[in-house]
From TrEMBL:
GO terms for biological process: DNA transposition. It comes from the Bacteria. It comes from Pararhodospirillum photometricum DSM 122. Signal peptide: none annotated. Required for the transposition of the insertion element. The keyword RNA-binding does not apply. Keywords: DNA recombination, DNA-binding, Transposable element, Transposition. InterPro entries: Transposase_mutator (IPR001207). It holds the Pfam family Transposase_mut. GO terms for molecular function: DNA binding; transposase activity. This is Mutator family transposase. Belongs to the transposase mutator family.
């Protein structure tokens, strides 16, 4: 981890130096937490958890991370919390804290995440009006894991036919074709897909320009990829605090490269309540605007 933050040529650091760096990072983390985001509004949020490599593995703890998209299309780190990825209670604690302190005072229009997260139960309790979008990247992997390797390449293409469909009707038809094609021999794979039919297709109710951002948790997965790539096992055990601060620093470094959402001009429309059907602003909304 230290080499990722200090460079490949970082010297062997003594415990005292590591303690000093940890104190500096702790100060940065505390300043970030106190940063006033009460005036912020996040239209979309992406949620996931990154497991830590070190002592914390033993208790299956991980970093719960929430990234949000502002009305201007910028992505920002909204929430960061030590918890258990599948635990609804851990996610509830994070969401309640964010809401109470004004960092997420208004419900997002849509949340994107892996279907296995306890995040969804917590969202239903804390932000019941937010729509749910399951990540197609995770869902594809889950479905393929329930089928023989020999059919996985073809099955993967058929799954892509669903989420790449131009509208909801075509996607629904593609799901039915998938079920007819694989349901008899691979019922568990088909059930895995059909169970989340509604949240897998939620993105069709949002601007088409945003679909590339909403169908997967890529905005947050790209951050975790950097964390996982740069995080190496250490001979010495890391304390939960040190591990948390190191991952926080890596995420903040990755945040500098985040790109704005495409079609940011559509975001204010969502906030004002404009409805979209198959990615296009509804005719009713267009007529009201013209009037």
């Amino acid at each position: 981890m230290l080499s990722a933050l200090l460079g490949k040529e970082a010297p062997c650091l003594s415990p005292s130096v590591i303690s000093r760096l940890t104190a500096e990072w702790s100060g940065e983390y505390e300043r970030w937490q106190k940063h006033d985001l009460s005036a912020r509004r996040y239209v979309y949020v992406w949620a996931d958890g990154v497991s830590l490599q070190a002592r914390m593995e033993e208790s299956a703890e991980c970093m719960l991370v929430l990234i949000g998209a502002t009305p201007e299309g910028r992505k920002e780190l909204v929430g960061f919390h030590i918890g258990v990825r599948e635990s609804a209670q851990s996610w509830r604690e994070l969401l309640v804290d964010l809401k109470a302190h004004g960092r997420l005072a208004i419900a997002p229009e849509l949340a994107v995440g892996d279907g296995a997260l306890g995040f969804w139960k917590a969202m239903e309790e804390v932000f019941p009006s937010t729509c749910h979008q399951r990540c197609w990247l995770h869902k594809t992997g889950n479905v393929l894991n329930k089928a023989a390797k020999s059919v996985q390449p073809g099955m993967k293409k058929d799954l892509a036919e669903i989420w790449m469909s131009p509208d909801r009707a075509a996607a629904e038809k593609a799901i039915n074709v998938f079920a007819a094609k694989y349901g008899t021999k691979y019922p568990k794979a088909t059930e895995c897909l059909e169970t989340d039919r509604i949240p897998l297709l939620a993105f069709y109710d949002f601007p088409a320009e945003h679909w590339v951002h909403l169908r997967t948790t890529n905005p947050i997965e790209s951050v975790f990829a950097a964390v996982r790539h740069r995080t190496v096992r250490t001979k010495g055990a890391l304390s939960p605090k040190t591990a948390k601060l190191m991952v926080f620093k890596l995420i903040m470094a990755a945040a500098k490269t985040w790109r704005r959402l495409k079609g940011e001009n559509q975001l204010p429309k969502l906030i004002s309540g404009v409805k979209f059907i198959d990615g296009v602003q509804s005719a009713e909304a267009v007529s009201q605007t013209a009037a």
